[in-house]
Specification:
Helices cover about 30% and strands about 20% of the residues. It has eleven helices and 15 strands. The two termini are about 25 Å apart.
Length: about 350
């Protein structure tokens, strides 16, 4: 449990995505305190073609980061499949052997294996572990000795603060990137529509099931035959995701669950610092080095500014991040619920 003293707030870590070695170097060069990466195998929830790291590339990335006083976290954040558990264990072993600063795990069996086999390896509970309260986090600490937990993007600021006040585990929250409106680790929309779960395939809308169909001057977007959205000629088209589709509800076509938009915490950074959030995470391992560099640069400047009493959001920061946002718009998501 946190101390109730009045210690000066600690500057949170800026944790940035890296889908390849070039993105890792750009993140480090633009001020990331740490980066998170994944192997080129199914243990990684972003195991997409053209992304991720060979063993040699991760080793090179770790050397590059650690020689500059930064860290590399390796995401082994899918759930081990029956009869193939050795693949996930081998990735944990490799991460420890390479000298990774931490591994992100969601599977309880893998957490148990890592804690027993590599007691010196820092274990972070992945957002896919779906821990939304301090009881769940403290359980993972007592059972596996986790050092940090990544909170799903469904908690209000008050709920995040309650978690922090009731655990000694470091808390990591998302600060920028595509917004998941479900509780990560529990969503079954993709499984229902395609038979592929984000917990095993790492994506809400697997590319093999996405279809773009022109019809009478507009573009229809489907996921495994299910109409997700349609776009008029010249209208900006978002990637078809079930929870961000337009549906007919009570006779009206609109974004019934969530609009395509990105999370952006610039406006509440001082509040996250005050609460004691230990790490602010940028989403986007599937994005290129240009995205990583720009977003890292802005968040680095903003976090540093948030440590001072006269913090204000610079218009230039918002302009740059809006261009990088899904739908070129941003939201505070669940962090701000003014109707409560």
């Amino acid at each position: 449990m946190r101390s109730s003293g009045k210690e000066a707030p600690q500057r949170p870590e800026l944790l940035c995505p890296a889908g390849n070695l070039a993105a890792l170097k750009v993140a480090i060069d633009n001020g990331a305190d740490a980066v998170y990466v994944g192997f080129k195998n199914p243990t990684n929830a972003r195991n997409f073609a053209g992304l991720n790291f060979t063993n040699e590339q991760i080793s090179a990335g770790i050397r590059y980061a650690q020689s500059r006083g930064r860290q590399v976290h390796i995401a082994i954040n899918t759930f081990a499949q029956a009869g193939r558990v050795s693949e996930w264990r081998a990735s944990i072993d490799k991460a420890a052997e390479m000298g990774a600063d931490a591994v992100l795990l969601a599977d309880m069996g893998l957490l148990s294996y890592a804690a027993a086999r590599h007691p010196a390896l820092k274990l972070h509970l992945s957002v896919q572990g779906s821990a939304t309260n301090f009881e769940a986090i403290n359980f993972a600490y007592e059972m596996f000795g986790i050092k940090r937990a990544v909170l799903p993007r469904v908690l209000t600021l008050a709920q995040i603060e309650q978690v922090i006040q009731n655990t000694s585990v470091e808390i990591e929250t998302f600060g920028f990137g595509s917004l998941c409106v479900m509780v990560e680790g529990r969503c079954i929309l993709s499984s229902y529509a395609t038979g592929q779960s984000p917990n095993t395939h790492g994506v809400c809308s697997p590319a093999a099931f996405v279809r773009w169909e022109p019809q009478n001057g507009r573009m229809n977007a489907r996921l495994n035959g299910i109409m997700i959205d349609h776009f008029e000629e010249g209208e900006r088209a978002g990637y078809p995701t079930l929870c961000k589709g337009r549906f007919n509800a009570q006779g009206e076509d609109y974004y019934a669950l969530e609009e395509p938009t990105s999370l952006n915490v610039l406006a509440i950074l001082p509040e996250l610092v005050r609460m004691g959030v230990r790490s602010i995470k940028i989403e986007g391992r599937q994005r290129g080095p240009a995205y990583v560099g720009e977003v890292t640069r802005i968040l680095r400047a903003a976090i540093d500014a948030a440590m001072k009493a006269d913090y204000t959001v610079k218009p230039m920061w918002s302009e740059v991040l809006d261009k990088m946002s899904e739908g070129q718009q941003h939201t505070l998501g669940a962090y701000s619920r003014p109707w409560k």
